[in-house]
Amino acid sequence: MNSPQTAAITAVHGWLPPDKLTNADLEKMVDTNDEWIRTRTGISERRILKDPKKATSDMVAEVIKGLCAQRGISPEEVDLVIVATVTPDMFFPSTAQLSCYKSGAKNAWGFDLSAACSGFLFALRTGSQFVTNGTHKKVIVVGSDKMSSIVDYTDRTTCVLFGDAAAGVLLEADPTGKTGIQDAILRSDGAGSEYLRMQAGGSLNPASAETIAAKMHYIEQDGKPVFKAAVTSMADVSYEIMERNGLGADDISYLVPHQANLRIIDATARRMGVGREKVMINIEKYGNTTAATIPLCLWEWSNKLTPGENLILSAFGGGFTWGSIWLKWAMTPKA
Fold first, then answer.
1. Of 149, 177, 205, the domain-final residue
2. In terms of domains, do 204 and 86 share one?
3. pLDDT recorded at residue 1
4. Which residues are catalytic?
5. Nearest to 317 by CA among 243, 261, 267
6. Potential cystine with 15: which of 62, 179, 210, 254 (Cβ 3.0-4.6 Å)?
7. What percent of the residues of the chain are helix, what percent strand, and what percent coil, each to the nearest 5?
8. Is the pLDDT of residue 7 over 70?
9. What is the pLDDT of residues 14-68, one digit of tens each?
10. Residue 262 DSSP code
11. What is the C-alpha radius of gyration for the chain, rounded to an integer number of angstroms?
12. 82 has which bridge partners?
């Protein structure tokens, strides 16, 4: 960076729906069992937003209010809200706009960003630019997905994986540059689009009786190529950001990986040379919440972190999209 000023995380918050969907519940719905799910994914249960009147924006609004309360500010002080999601309430208006309205952030502008499971990293890097260039003082970045709205609960290969949640951070400037986002590597490759996607609902395949009958409005995944690409991409990009910044395993306090699959997480940690004790893992409780997984981890571990600690954030998602961010933690643990 030309300027030492960085964008630091000054508040972190998450919101989880109250209802759980356990592996035992799924055994009654599809041909699967608890051992099979846990062995292949590491997941035991996930949260589901069952209220038919609630959507992604409602979860985001709770995160915005929680972040402001934690920081001791009014939602009216927020300048910008970026929402990473693949399950917007609707195509337009944006989920960010609806969330600002519902949370009272009436002076903020906002937009949605779609990068699947890498969405939070892409949004975090994007949001940080508005802080480091000095045009915005308080930027909120939220990853939120109501995956239950696009999951086919008759497809045992995908319905066991996903859950609903929202989590996010408040970004503010650190003029010293000693905390906050230090570096980022973000990548995408549309060649992987056929392996992980939702085919219908857009301009290519508008909603019709035919697309509904063909179940084209549900998430579609070809597991083997996705798993192979995820293992390689997440591991390599995490190692790359460490190498180019002269960081060793001993310098890293935690790897904060996207929670897609425990085997992918383990492979990334091995490539970085860090042990399980330095990896944030909560997939067993929440499953894959897409854009919400990384900020959910930050929220759950926030009271264990101290200012200056090095964190490596790493994700892989549909598209394909992938990336890694190196940040230095800025928040002091609560008393």
1. 177
2. no
3. 40
4. 117, 258, 288
5. 261
6. 62
7. 40, 25, 35
8. yes
9. 999 999 999 999 999 999 999 999 999 999 999 999 999 999 999 999 999 999 9
10. H
11. 19
12. 111, 141
Indicate which CATH number applies to the domain containing 230: 3.40.47.10
In angstroms, rounded to a whole number, what is the distance separating the alpha carbons of residues 75 and 64?
A: 7
Give the H or E element holding residue 35. helix 34-41
CA angle (175 as vertex; 75, 308 as ends), nearest 5: 90
| DSSP per-residue codes, 218-234 | S-EE-HHHHHHHHHHHH
Q: What is the mean pLDDT of residues 282-293?
A: 98
Q: How confident is the model at residue 334 (pLDDT cuts 50, 70, 90)?
A: confident
270 membership: H or E segment, kind and range:
helix 262-272
- For the stretch 220-229, pLDDT in tens is 999 999 999 9
For residue range 197-256, what is the model confidence (pLDDT) as tens digits? Answer: 999 999 999 999 999 999 999 999 999 999 999 999 999 999 999 999 999 999 999 999
Determine contact, residues 301/287, Cβ cutoff 8 Å: no
Domain extent, residue 234, equals 181-328
Do 171 and 237 fall within a single domain?
Answer: no
CA angle 90, 94, 98 (to 5 degrees): 95
